[in-house]
Amino acid sequence: MESVIVSSDFQSKIDQDANIEPKDSMPDAYREHLIRQISQHAHSEVIGMQPEGNWITRAPSLRAKQILLAKIQDEGGHGLYLYSAAETLGISRDEMIRQLHSGKAKYSNIFNYPALTWADIGAIGWLVDGAAIVNQVSLQRTSYGPYARAMVRICKEESFHQRQGYEIMTKMMNGTEAQKQMAQDAMNRWWWPSLMMFGPHDSDSPHSGNAFTWKIKRKSNDELRQKFIDKTVQQAEVIGLTIPDPELRWNETKQMYDHGEINWEEFKRVINGNGPCNRQRMEHHMHVHAEGAWVREAAEAYAKQQH
Ligand code: BYC
Q1: Ligand 1 geometric centre to CA of 236 (Å)
Q2: Whose CA is nearest to atom 44 of ligand 1?
Q3: Which residues, 6+ apart, have CB-to-CB distance to 141 below 8 Å?
Q4: What pLDDT, in 10s, does the model give residues 245-290?
Q5: Interval 208-252: pLDDT, tens
Q6: Which of 29, 72, 201, 214 is surrounded by the fewest CB atoms within 10 Å?
Q7: Residue from 154, 271, 281 whose mutation best tests the ligand 1 pocket (most atoms within 8 A of CB)
Q8: By alpha-carbon position, which residue is closest to atom 33 of ligand 1?
Q9: Which residue is closest in CA terms to ligand 1's atom 29?
Q10: CA 41 / ligand 1 centre spacing (Å)
C-alpha cells in the first residue's frame, strides 16, 4: 500500500515539473538511474583533467598556462559537486570510486583519446566543452534537484572553457601554415569522438525510455547532437576550419545539417575499455588515488575531532 502512495506522490511531482529532493520518496529504479548517470558524469569530469593536464608544463605562454590551470581546476570542482549530488542518493564516494576502478561505472568516451599537440587543447575546449554545454544546459532542467542545481554553475564555467578553446583555435588559424595544419589535424581527430559524447542513437539508447518518463532527460541524444552540429559548423567556417565529414551539408527543408554516420564500432570499443588511452587513464587515476590516501585519512581524522 505504502509503495503506491509513494510512487503516486513521486509521479505527481514529476508531472508538475517540481524537483525531486534527496529526502523525497522515489522509486528505487529512479535512484539507481541517477546514481549511474551522475557518478559517470562526475568520473568524466575528473578523468577529463588528464588529457589537458598533460599540457600545463608546455603551454605556449604564461597567460595560456594560467587559463589552462584554471580550467582544469574547474573540472575537478565539477567532479566534486557531482560526487556530492550522487552522495545525496545514498551511495558513498568510496563506492563510486570502486565502481570506476572495477570498470562497472563508465566515463565519457572522449577522454580516452590522447592530446597530442597544443591545438588539441583548443579542440578539447571548443568541441568537448562545447558538446558538454549543449547536453548540460538541457540537464539544468533535470528532475533531481541537486543534479539540476549543480548544472547551473557548471554550465557557466563550461562556457568560459568553450571560449578559451575557440580562442586557441582562432589564434592558430591566424598563424603560420604549420599552425593551421596543426589546428585542422586536431579538428579531424576530435570531431567524431565529440559527436559520440551524446551517446547512441535514440533507437539504440536503453536508458532513454525511463529518462524521459522521469524527466531526467529533457532532450534526446540525437536532438542534442544535432543542436551541437548546427552551431559548431558555423563556428568552424568563421575561422577557416573544415569539418571532416564529406556528407555534411545544409538541409534547406529541415533547416539543419545532414551529416555522415558515426563509427559505432569505435564508440563501443572505447566505452568498453579498449580505446587508445583507457588503460593509461585508469592506471593514472588508481595511482594518484592511492597516493592521496593520507589526505583523506587526515581529513577524516580532523572531521572526527570536530564532533
Ligand atoms: N561515453 O542509454 P544511453 C566534460 C553509455 S565532462 C561513455 O543513451 P543515457 C569535461 C551509457 O552510460 C561531461 N559511455 O545512456 C570534463 C550506457 O551505459 P551503462 C560529461 C556512454 O545515460 C573535463 C550506454 O552507453 N558529460 O564536459 O540515457 C574536461 C547506453 O547509453 C556515452 C556527461 O557525463 C559516452 N559518450 O545517456 C573537459 C553528461 N554515451 O551506463 C570537459 C551526463 C552513452 O548502461 N550524462 N554511454 O553502462 C548524460 O547526459 C547521459 O548519461 C548520456 C547517455 C547522454 C551520456
Answers
A1: 25
A2: 199
A3: 148, 215, 218
A4: 999 999 999 999 999 999 999 999 999 999 999 999 999 999 999 9
A5: 999 999 999 999 999 999 999 999 999 999 999 999 999 999 999
A6: 29
A7: 271
A8: 41
A9: 48
A10: 7
Q: Give phi and psi for 258, each to the nearest 5.
A: -85, 150
**In angstroms, how far is CA 156 from the centroid of its own chain?**
14
Which DSSP string do the residues of the chain spell out, in sequence order?
-HHHHHHHHHHHHHHTTPPB-TTS---HHHHHHHHHHHHHHHHHHHHTHHHHHTTGGG-SSHHHHHHHHHHHHHHHHHHHHHHHHHHTTT--HHHHHHHHHHTSS---GGGGS---SHHHHHHIIIIIHHHHHHHHHHHTT-SBHHHHHHHHHHHHHHHHHHHHHHHHHHHHHTS-HHHHHHHHHHHHHHHHHHHHTT-S-GGG-TTHHHHHHTTS-SS-HHHHHHHHHHHHHHHHHHHTPPPS-TT-EEETTTTEEE-PPP-HHHHHHIIIIISTTHHHHHHHHHHHHHHTHHHHHHHHHHHHHH-
User: How far apart, in Å, are the Cα atoms of 282 and each of 50, 288, 290, 300?
Assistant: 10, 10, 12, 25
Please choose, from the candidates 79, 54, 106, the residue with its C-alpha nearest in 3D space to the C-alpha of residue 274: 106
> Closest by alpha carbon to 83, among 37, 130, 128?
37
**Ligand 1 center to residue 184 CA distance, Å?**
26
